[in-house]
Amino acid sequence: MTALLERKWGVTDIGLEEGVSRLDPSKITKVINQVLNGEGIARLKTYVDTCIHCGLCSTACHHYLSNDCDPTFAPVAKIKNTLWEMIKNKGRVSPAFIKQAAEIAYTECNLCKRCSMYCPFGIDMAWMLSLVRRICHLCGVVPQYLQDTANSHAVTMNQMWVKQDEWIDTLQWQEEEAQSEIPSLRIPLDKEGADVMYSVIGPEPKFRAQLIYSAAVLMTVAGVNWTMPSFDGWDNSDMAMYSGDWEVMGRVKKAHFEAAMKLKVKKIVMGECGHAFRSVYDVGNRWLGWKMHPIPIVHAIQFYYELLKDGKIKIVRKIKEPVTLHDPCNVMRGRGLMEHARYVVKAMCEDFREMEPNREYNYCCCAGGGVINCGPPWKKKRVDSNKIKAEQLAATGAKIVITPCHNCHSGIEDIINYYKLGIHNVFIIDLLMQCIEIPEELKA
Amino acid sequence: MYEFVRGPLLWISFIVFIGGSLFRLLYMAMLAKKKDHTVYTYMSLKYGLRSILHWIIPFGSINMRQRPAFTIFSFAFHICLLFTPIFLLAHNVLWYESWGISWWTIPDWLADIMTVVVIIAGVFFFLRRRLRPEVRYVTSASDYALLIIAVAPFITGFLAYHQWLPYKAMLILHILAGEIMLMVIPFTRLDHMFFFWFTRAYMGSEFGAVRHVKDW
Ligand code: HEM
Ligand code: SF4
Ligand code: SF4
Q: What is the mean pLDDT of each run of 10 residues along chain B (216 residues)?
């Protein structure tokens, strides 16, 4: 077996340490063989047998580029240091090896799939590393903070241990706040037959309740017939997807889809979150046996685009400062909303500047894929591993960066602070609140 | 010896190459049917072909444009490697003698240049494996072996044609090298020659039909 890697950050994570201390080698072998011979085996075999070891995928990865082109951060190297060894040794690897595999799969890959656009064979490294996560999850070796969010999903059906009364309370609080601006504003709960069910991620009521306020204003101004569920299924996020706990992922997704069906809405509109979108559009639906999402689902970016295009909202003020846009992997490379986002942003901003590269080629924020959810122990490694993003941001000369995804948002915030970029970080809806017209008859 | 490599072993190598390749492809198709239905569910003819097209045209992808030297060597290598043996006059004469078939041929001077191109590109790949840390890190003995297996028929063919070394011995080595190459293709990473079309088409389908973006 090749020697284990030494990482300069030397992070210790109780989740990994204790998980590994409970592992015995026979369990490891059993788990690995179960996963690697399970569903997906044809792709896995083909990918591993076809990869010609050319290293062409390396420059796709922000971890590689940001860590001075250290070859151990190249996408193919991460496969070598996890799956190749597991396959070669027929699953007989040490607990220490599993710990390393967990560190690689959970903290050195954001599952952003940029490397699949760089590999001449289109090999899906991100998917293979999610299989490694699956193995680590089944071995019980998961970073502590990430495991905590998965536990929360399992117990409460939301990511942040929010209880139902707290949830309803938060919505009513935001409704009252917003009524000082628009007295007739309501956040309609459980309104059967509404056109739109609006769903958010668990951290919104917990830390960013202001966003719910903004969404309510937008819905009211645009005259949308909307509702939010008061019961489980309101949270569209899914960290179990990233921890490798696909059973819980399935339960969470099911609750979300079923909430919409119970309310008999025409579609779900989800807030500005990328991973949540991936979980309903690409991963969770497949686990549940749906080729695509079972009911129409619209991401916030597309929703804003449609409102603007249909004249439901009007831009009356423009942002004068230079603005740039971060393209979140899960809705750009994952769903192709590049031009929708630009339509909305350009309508609001006089001085819009592209990052290079942009659109589906954009560098990942290094927070997504559950990496930021691995928590404080890994923060320094995470921001060091996205120096390239800091350089990309600084090169635009923008004063404001729009980051229409929750994970990206927090990740970019950390990068701005760590590299002292002095850029203001906003969601699209934050700018919409400054730019759209609130009709006189609605105002207080 | 010459009789053996020219006779039975040639047959064996063709059978192993064709039979082995068919077996590998069919086996994978069935395995996917049984345990990996995702592949069939999301495969799209239109987007699969769209992706393949961009990746078999030189400089058709962003990564190829960012690495012009590699792209030129890679395409020169593959084109010459595939076309030289098929259109070489001497090979055609042999086919005609054995089976009474033949097709277009390229002049010997061109074949000579193409052979040298394969060898030079092989040297480029070899040096790249030694010198580029990210390639070297994932390189093992088998990668050098495959490179040698791929280039050996060209080196020996070149030497035999120019008769710099004993002709008969070189010719036997050349035929042997070609046969080894054919026989290992289905069972090594050289099978990328077949699987390329499927991995590319699958990722092209995911990116095109589901994600609505380019994958090149
Ligand atoms: C139509 C068939 C083929 C296709 C589409 C194909 C495609 C590729 C691709 C995409 C690569 C990745 C790196 C690059 O772009 O050069 C590659 C590498 C390579 N191919 Fe092929 N290939 C084919 C046939 C063959 C055959 C028949 C051989 C030899 C028997 C071969 C030998 C190699 C070798 C040795 C490399 C690795 C170069 C290195 O060391 O980096 N290929 N091929
Ligand atoms: S972070 Fe993105 S580019 Fe890097 S290995 Fe993971 S999926 Fe590939
Ligand atoms: S680019 Fe593709 S084939 Fe080359 S090393 Fe990376 S994964 Fe393997």
A: 88 97 97 94 97 98 97 98 95 89 92 98 98 97 98 97 92 96 97 97 98 97
In angstroms, the CA A325 to CA B95 distance is 62
Per-residue H/E/C for chain B:
CHHHHHCHHHHHHHHHHHHHHHHHHHHHHHHHHHHCCHHHHHCCHHHHHHHHHHHHCCCCCHHHHHCHHHHHHHHHHHHHHHHHHHHEHHHHHHHHHHHCCCCCCECHHHHHHHHHHHHHHHHHHHHHHHHCHHHHHCCCHHHHHHHHHHHHHHHHHHHHHHCCCCHHHHHHHHHHHHHHHHHHHHHCHHHHHHHHHHHHHHHHHHHHHHCCCCCC
Q: Chain A residue closest to B126 (CA)?
A: A54
pLDDT tens column, A136-173:
999 999 999 999 999 999 999 999 999 999 999 999 99
Q: Which CATH superfamily is domain B2-29+61-210 in?
A: Transmembrane di-heme cytochromes, Chain C (1.20.950.20)
Residue A356 pLDDT greater than 60, yes or no = yes
The ipTM assigned to this model is 0.96
Q: What is the pLDDT of residues B50-63, one digit of tens each?
A: 999 999 999 999 99
pLDDT digits (tens, 9 = 90+) for A174-214: 999 999 999 999 999 999 999 999 999 999 999 999 999 99
Burial B97-129 (b: 16+ CB within 10 A, else e): eeeeeeeebbeeeebbebbebbbebbebbeebb
CA A111 to ligand 2 centroid distance, Å = 5
**pLDDT-above-90 percentage for chain A:** 98
Residue A1 has pLDDT above 60, yes or no: no
Separation between Cα atoms, residue A167 and residue A200, nearest integer Å: 11
Type of residue found at B123: V
Q: pTM score, two decimals? A: 0.96
Sign of CA dihedral B52, B58, B64, B70: positive
> Atom 2 of ligand 2 has which residue's CA nearest to it?
A112
Q: Is the pLDDT of residue A316 over 80?
A: yes
Bridge pairing between strands A297-299 and A267-270: parallel
Distance from C-alpha of A360 to C-alpha of A418, rounded to nearest angstrom: 26
Domain architecture of chain A: domains with CATH: 14-142 (1.10.1060), 150-309+438-442 (1.20.1050), 323-435 (3.40.50)
CB B81 within 8 A of CB B111: no
- CA distance linking residue B179 with residue B156, whole number of Å: 12
Kindly tell me if the per-residue pLDDT of A2 is higher than 80.
no
Compute the mean pLDDT over every residue in chain B, rounded to the nearest whole number.
96
- What would the two tokens of residue A156 be? 């409460």
Question: Looking at the partner chain, which of B32, B132, B195 has a beta carbon nearest the beta carbon of A55?
Answer: B132
Q: Compute the distance between CA of residue A427 and CA of residue A171 in angstroms, rounded to an integer.
A: 20
Structure tokens at B155: 């080196």
For residues A279 and A237, the answer to whether their CB atoms sit within 8 Å is yes
CB A99 within 8 A of CB A20: yes
DSSP state of A2: P
Measured CA to CA, the distance from residue B15 to residue B97 in angstroms comes to: 20
Tokens standing for residue A391: 């350089």
| Rounded distance between C-alpha atoms, residue A331 and residue A311, angstroms | 24
Which residue puts its alpha carbon closest to atom 26 of ligand 1?
A: B193
Minimum-distance ligand 2 atom for the alpha carbon of A75: 5
Which protein residues touch ligand 2 with a CB less than 6 Å away? Answer: A 60-61, 63, 75, 78, 109-115, 125-126, 364
